[in-house]
Design a protein that fits this description.
The chain contains 9 helices and no strands. The protein starts with a helix and ends with a helix. It has helices at 2-34, 41-82, 86-100, 106-122, 128-132, 139-147, 151-167, 171-187, 191-208. The chain is elongated, with a radius of gyration of 25 Å.
């Protein structure tokens, strides 16, 4: 975890240095054009090209910096989760989510699943009325997966929600979520996953009835 934190800090410094370098070049080119330095025609063309290109290069650099930070935060969250540091894992996943914004995406779906796993293991602090109504830590991840058509992960999210409901003593909710997961797997031809879920439902009925 310490190495991941240090790597994130080093990447931040590296991106800031690269951006500062581009800004220096831009300022130099701008000064050359405004002060009409004695340059050749080709050099003047190059100066104008730089003034046009550098803003885009800075934007691309900032995007790359955000993407790298999200990736490192996700790795840090996963490492913390595996080590049982759930509070640190949640913080890392939430920071990564905040950088992604609210636009539905595959990356958001992945992070919401990771965050749901943390919450489920830590003991989800939903209101009792919400729990009784069938809400689970996996609901946000499930909706996000549906929005970006990540069917396999969506099925997994619903199946995990079913398991979580079962652990809360919500048998009817467990069966409803499991049926929804099976139907979704069937609709999108996820045959192996569908069979496993049907077998789980059969085993549950055989052992509980």
């Amino acid at each position: 975890l310490r190495l991941l934190s240090e790597a994130r800090e080093k990447w931040d410094v590296s991106f800031r240095d690269q951006e500062a370098h581009l800004e220096q070049i831009r300022e130099l080119c701008q000064a050359a054009v405004q002060q009409k330095w004695d340059v050749s025609c080709n050099q003047e063309i190059w100066l104008h090209q730089q003034l046009e290109q550098i803003p885009q290069q800075i934007w691309e650099l900032r995007q790359a910096a955000v993407e790298k930070k999200i990736s490192l935060l996700q790795c840090q969250g996963q490492a913390a989760y595996l080590l049982g540091n759930l509070a640190e894992a949640r913080t890392a996943f939430e920071q990564a989510l905040s950088l992604l914004g609210d636009q539905p995406s595959v990356d958001r779906a992945t992070l919401l699943m990771a965050l749901a796993n943390v919450d489920a293991q830590a003991g989800w602090h939903g209101e009792q009325s919400a729990i009784e109504a069938g809400y689970t830590p996996y609901d946000r991840a499930y909706r996000e997966c549906l929005a970006v058509e990540q069917w396999h992960t969506a099925v997994q999210a619903r199946a995990l929600a079913a398991d979580w409901a079962y652990l809360q003593g919500q048998r009817s909710t467990f069966l409803r979520f499991l049926d929804e997961a099976i139907q979704l797997a069937e609709a999108h031809e996820l045959t192996d996953l569908e069979r496993k879920l049907r077998l789980r439902r059969l085993n549950f009925r055989l052992t509980s009835d």
